[in-house]
Amino acid sequence: MIAIVNYKAGNLASVKKAFDHLGYESAITADPGVISRADKIVLPGVGNFEATTALAGSLQEVVVQAIDRQVPLLGICLGMQWMFESSQEAPQLRGLGLFAGECEKFPAAVKSPHVGWNQLQVAGTSRLLRGLSQDSFVYFTHSYRAPVVEATVGRCEYGGPFSAVVERGELFGVQFHPEKSGTAGLQLLRNFGEL
Amino acid sequence: MLTKRIIACLDVDAGRVVKGVQFSDLRDAGDPAELALTHGRAGADEVVMLDISATYENRSTLLDVVRRTARQLFIPFTVGGGIRSLDDAAAVFDAGADKVAVNSAALADPALIGRVAHRYGSQAVIVAIDALRISNGNSLSFGVKATGGRHTTGRDAVAWAVEAEQCGAGEILLTSIDRDGMRDGFDCELTRAVVNAVKIPVIASGGAGAAGHFVEVFRDGRADAALAASIFHLGITPIAELKQELQTAGIPMRWPC
CA-to-CA distance for B191 and B250, rounded, in angstroms? Predict the structure, then answer.
């Protein structure tokens, strides 16, 4: 079972619908017991980095324990940013620090938020991106971006390069919304489901 | 590269897709869920569903249509029409919409925009503006109409777009009432005026009739996205053909997709 962690950050139903469509059992839950028994965990979410304060405490604890047990974890959008150290959006808060660096604002030269379909530059081998072609189009909607780091396996270009996909071991993060990215996004979620 | 978006719009009345001219003379154009999927497969970047009558009796019919559509549509899906409260928005999100479009209720109570944005994020809130040209001697301005184009509001479209952005809107859906259903091109002046005034994406709507109109509204109107209804439903311009033509004209498109 895939646990979709419900921390009240936006509408999480579309992620579940995509897993339903692909035939993977999933549940939207805020129950630490359910999350600790899950085979895989998804941290979805949109909105302000501050929303991640709802994860502090027992939810964060159970997610961190799952990471230690090598349970595959996929952060989507805000969920991915939370896997970094911090964000300029809420500098007083800490992320999980699974990936180095701070999420930052887009430069003033480009319109923000970055909304729409942009291309994925696949860089390096990735289990999550298996079967996705170079320059696949995926759907983004965000005002802050994660830096390109060692774990970056997919970049995107908008006012400079940023991390669209990060992957290290059983840790995965995507800045875009695979559940809203047509066939490319469904392929990515299938890859996660198959891990 | 960030592409310009082509959005297929479904005007829904009592569970059926309809299409009118200048907001009236409605004709049946098919089943909403079916058409949404057809457009998605054909290459639409997003689907917008507008409940144009938005009566109380139609509400459960609409939510059922939204549910059926959302189960199989894996591109952004916006629902609008008759969203008067946070509860109305919540019902539409629960049924599977990714974004809501608010119009008349936001004009009456701009704080509604912030209430929805606070719970679901700004990216989930589109403020729809129905604008009308007002010529006064040599000066041109754009007014705002409410309730499906029936009531004048005394508001200026550009000023309202700016206010909506400040209230927390994530995108503006800007419809030219003058051009709606006319198929003689978007109102590029209106579009450009709003694009220049706000930082959030602007979706141009009203007047799409041929590929050239899209080129104009992306180039001259500086729109981030363009929305059309009848030319897609009636098969006048297949989306695939449109996207290829735009790409040839140098407009970045999600194609092939």
Answer: 20
Q: Do A17 and B70 touch (CB under 8 A)?
A: yes
A2-194: which CATH topology?
Rossmann fold (3.40.50)
Query: What is chain B's pLDDT, residue by residue, as a tens digit (257 residues)?
Result: 999 999 999 999 888 988 755 566 667 778 999 999 999 999 999 999 999 887 777 788 899 999 999 999 999 999 999 899 999 999 999 999 999 999 999 999 999 999 999 888 899 999 999 999 999 888 999 999 998 888 889 999 999 999 999 999 999 999 999 999 899 999 999 999 999 999 999 999 999 999 999 999 999 999 999 999 888 887 788 999 999 999 999 999 999 88
Question: What's the CA gap between A111 and B199, in Å, rounded?
Answer: 6
pLDDT tens sequence across B191-238: 999 999 999 999 999 999 999 999 999 999 999 999 998 888 877 889
Nearest in space to B77 (alpha carbons), one of B37, B44, B45, B48: B48
Instruction: Tell me the nearest-neighbour CA distance from B153 into chain A, angstroms.
Output: 29
Q: Distance from B180 to chain A by nearest Cα, in Å?
A: 24
Q: Cβ of A18 and B199 within 8 Å? A: no
CA distances from A75 to A21, A43, A164, A165, B64 (A): 20, 5, 11, 10, 30
Residues of chain A in contact with residue B72, where contact means CB-CB under 8 angstroms, are 21
Q: Regarding beta strands A102-105 and A144-145, do their DSSP bridges make them parallel or antiparallel, or are they unpaired?
A: antiparallel
Q: How far apart are CA A155 and CA A119, in angstroms?
A: 8
Q: What domains can be seen in chain B, in order of their start residue?
A: 5-248 (3.20.20.70)
User: How many CB contacts within 8 angstroms connect chain A with chain B?
Assistant: 92
Q: Does residue A77 carry a catalytic annotation? A: yes
Active-site annotation holds for A103: no
Spans of all domains in chain A: 2-194
Encode pLDDT of B87-108 as tens digits. Answer: 999 999 999 999 999 999 999 9
With a cut of 0.85, is the ipTM above it?
A: yes
Q: How far away is chain A from the Cα of B38, in angstroms, using its nearest Cα? A: 13
B-facing residues of A in 63-92 (CB < 8 A) are none
All residues of chain B having their beta carbon less than 8 Å from the beta carbon of residue A181 are 74-75
